[in-house]
Amino acid sequence: MSSRERPLSPHLQVYRPQYTSVLSILHRITGVFLTLGSLLLVAWLVAAASGPDGFARVQWFMGSFIGYLLLFGWTVALFYHMCNGIRHLVWDAGYGLELDEAYRSGIAVLIATAVLTILTWVAGLLIL
Q1: What sign results for the dihedral spanned by CA atoms 76, 113, 116, 45?
Q2: Quick one: how far is CA 44 from the chain centroid?
Q3: Average pLDDT of the chain, as a whole number
Q4: How far apart, in whole angstroms, are the C-alpha atoms of residue 94 and residue 91?
Q5: What is the mean pLDDT of the segment spanning 40-55?
Q6: Which domains does the chain have, with CATH numbers?
């Protein structure tokens, strides 16, 4: 019997990351980012309700480079999490579980995320 300690479950230092596992980890990370972005949205709404001075400060921040970067990241996280959630719903229904189908649906999620994010930002810029 070996005295060497072995991991009890798959571990990042033992296994090479696979495409599907990376997408799964990204799904969890985007869920956290969506929560943080929602807090930023709540701060914006509270500032709007508190009066013009508070709203002007938050609006200035949201209009800054960092604010736009945060909004862009939140948009990417929103669309990725939504598209990957739909992918998981399809899997829960018993479809797309073969490895090649899982890879194709992962690529479709990434493409849909990019397209939806770009369309949203282009439409937002056209409205301004």
Answers
A1: negative
A2: 20
A3: 92
A4: 5
A5: 94
A6: 19-127 (1.20.1300.10)
pLDDT digits (tens, 9 = 90+) for 21-32: 899 999 999 999
Compute the distance between CA of residue 2 and CA of residue 101 in angstroms, rounded to an integer. Answer: 40
* Of 72, 47, 65, nearest in space to 57 by CA: 47
57-70 residue pLDDT tens: 999 999 999 999 99
Query: Which two tokens mark 16?
Result: 């090479």
Query: In the structure encoding, which two tokens stand for residue 33, read together?
Result: 């980012």
Cα separation, 119 vs 93, in Å, equals 29
| Residue that the structure tokens 């829960």 belong to | 92
Cα–Cα nearest to 76, from 26, 6, 4: 26
Q: What is the pLDDT of residue 3?
A: 66
